[in-house]
Amino acid sequence: MLGVEPDKSLFEILCDNLKTAKINYNVYIPWYIMTSRENNAQTIAFFEKNNYFNYPKEKIKFFVQGELPMVRTDGKILLNKEGIIKEAADGHGGIFEAMFKNGIVDDMKKNKIEWIFVGPVDNPLVKMVDEILIGVAVDKKVLAIGKSLVKANPQEKVGVFCKKNGRPAVIEYTEISKEMAEKKDKDGNLVYGESHINCNMFNIKAIEEIGNNKLPYHSAFKKATYMDEKGSIIEPDKPNAYKFESFIFDSFQKLDDMAILRVKREEEFAPVKGKTGVDSVETARELYNKYHLKK
Length: 295
What we know:
Layout (H helix, E strand, L loop, with lengths): L9 H16 L5 E5 L4 H10 L10 E5 L2 E3 L1 E2 L14 E3 L5 H7 L2 H7 L4 E4 L12 H10 L3 E7 L8 E6 L2 E5 L6 H5 L11 E10 H8 L6 E5 L3 E2 L5 E2 L6 E5 L13 E4 L2 H4 L12 H14 L1
């Protein structure tokens, strides 16, 4: 739980964005929430329990992202505790395929939605409704725009904006070399220092274009409990399997161009990656309270 008293969940904090937009623009903005197979029922139950945070239930739709099999280091597919193929969510880049498979794009077109903000659930400072973001995209005549902030240090675990073959792209922090991460320009600034904070806006035309193309898959080495050939359940103490996922920013390569809006870290970035330490519930609560007490 996060926030000034009384405590609020991340979902309620995000919903506050939409309720403020209703006050400002007299419109209920549809909210599409991508879940996983594991947490879909639990997420819906949480919304039901909290009366959808007093937002119209018919304006909130849930859809489940896809999954891909996990494999061992020897290339064999893992089995889960029930003895069937073990699968893992296919990454935030899977949102495009999931939107088409679950009829979300059709619903958006039916509701004449032109711009779609795609953002994370783990950042209480995310601005789900940002007039400036839309304005910059329209002014620059692009079909997509992303938010950035200056990288805190070369080791910060964020992807960075760049260009690949003349097209917009992001290099994930797990895939950038130490030399590139630490490279500086003549003014002492990081060459690859424009962080991608996973706050993106797409025109519906871009969504349709991206949806016609498969995004590449990246591998991640993870710990995974599985059933072995003898039927025993193995719980490893170190990474033992690969999962495959697509990244939302790989969709940028499908576009001729996009805009990037640099924002202030203290106003828009308080990620929750763990319970304690850096980028945790503790730090997010502190940043969220500091921002709102200052307003």
